[in-house]
Design brief:
Butyryl-CoA Dehydrogenase, subunit A, domain 2, Acyl-CoA_Oxase/DH_mid-dom, AcylCoA_DH/ox_N, Butyryl-CoA Dehydrogenase, subunit A, domain 3, 3 domains, Butyryl-Coa Dehydrogenase, subunit A, domain 1, 11 helices, single chain, alpha+beta, four-stranded mixed sheet
Length: 374
């Protein structure tokens, strides 16, 4: 029996296989894609290798441990493949969790096969970290509603084929009165634009000009959308931490190789105490982050209490750690790491966003503090 949060032989082999596929098959497809746009050939390849199906199993619940192992392994070799898979899973997970049989049968096979692109549409221009401040209005219209307003910072928008959209169907502010809807991309009145961001991932806005939704489009219960959104984020936050751990490991690998090969002041960089101590700190923080992510995933799968706190801790520590490790790796490499196309230049742009999305670092600290006194 292994020690807690040590991967068994089967898990290690699977992670190694995911990394092999990412480096050999997925990375060339990622490089051939257009930055800031959905890469459908990459999604098709992820599906062909069974990776989307592993994240979205046809039978049984999504396992947090599978998500974190997938995302960490992919991120270490190809961040674009990691993000493409994660966005598919995030976008359709509310349907897998709370959708109707008709919704699942219509969309899950298409998303798992990589033929349909999914999006999770929660954030708005005035409701980012404060997700309860949603303003997208769902006005009653016969037996359904008309959606009017805007979503912003939505991954895969405006190219997604299906969106899980959170809108306000009830009066007042806050978490109450928010409903989740499944909105196809070709629904009349739905528009949007691309956003040009630091990292090369598809991100955009969605505009709703009286978009008609009916009872058949409701995911879960009317007024229960905020609970669905938060439950989804509780599952995915540790895997955001896993994405960060994968990037930190890639940066650490690069820094170790460079420090062993690069000579300065009469010897290899690794013999300079300032460099060797930095590498030791990078490795220690990365290992601690990985353990925190694995612990949160194991607790989620076991149904243990305190999932929100554990998930927040994992995302907080892992994303902050990755920022430090990538920055330190750049410092060890010097100017060459900032040249366009260098691995660390790529990671430096990639590593910033996870400290903001799915709840910024400051929001994670607020969640942890509240949970401590619950």
């Amino acid at each position: 029996m292994g020690t807690p949060f040590t991967l068994d032989e089967q898990q290690r082999k699977w992670c190694a296989e995911v990394r092999r596929v990412a480096a050999g098959s997925l990375r060339p497809l990622a490089r051939a894609g257009t930055p800031g746009r959905v890469n459908r050939p990459l999604l098709a390849a992820l599906a062909e290798h069974g990776l989307i199906a592993r994240a979205l199993p046809a039978h049984g619940p999504v396992r947090a441990m599978d998500l974190v192992l997938l995302r960490a392994s992919l991120a270490r070799e190809c961040t674009e493949a990691e993000t493409a898979l994660a966005l598919q899973a995030l976008g359709i997970h509310p349907v897998l969790r709370a959708g109707t049989d008709a919704q699942r049968s219509r969309w899950l096979p298409e998303v798992v096969a990589g033929r349909a692109v999914a999006a999770f549409a929660l954030s708005e221009p005035g409701a980012g970290s404060d997700a309860a401040a949603l303003a997208l209005h769902a006005a009653p219209d016969g037996d359904g509603w008309r959606l009017t307003g805007e979503k912003c910072w939505i991954s895969n928008a405006p190219e997604a084929d299906v969106h899980t959209v959170f809108a306000r169907t009830g009066p007042g502010a806050g978490a109450r009165g928010v409903t989740a809807f499944l909105v196809p991309g070709d629904r009349p009145g739905l528009g949007g634009d691309h956003l040009d961001m630091l990292a090369p991932h598809p991100l955009g806005t969605l505009t709703f000009d009286g978009v008609r939704v009916g009872p058949q489009d409701v995911v879960g219960d009317v007024g229960g959308g905020f609970r669905i959104a938060m439950a989804t984020l509780d599952l995915f936050r540790p895997s955001v931490g896993a994405f960060a751990v994968g990037m930190a490991r890639a940066a650490l690998d690069a820094a170790l190789a460079h420090a062993a090969e690069r000579r300065a002041f009469g010897g290899p960089l690794k013999d300079l105490q300032a460099v060797s101590h930095t590498l030791a700190e990078m490795a220690t923080r990365t290992e601690a982050a990985a353990l925190l992510v694995l612990a949160a995933a194991a607790a989620y799968d076991a149904g243990e209490p305190g999932v929100a706190r554990r998930s927040a801790m994992a995302k907080l520590f892992a994303t902050e750690t990755a920022q430090y490790v990538v920055d330190a790796a750049v410092q060890i490499h010097g100017a060459r790491a900032l040249r366009r196309g260098h691995l660390l230049e790529h990671l430096y742009r990639e590593v910033r966003a996870p400290r903001v999305y799915e709840g910024a670092t400051e929001v994670q600290r607020t969640i942890i503090a509240k949970e401590l006194f619950r």
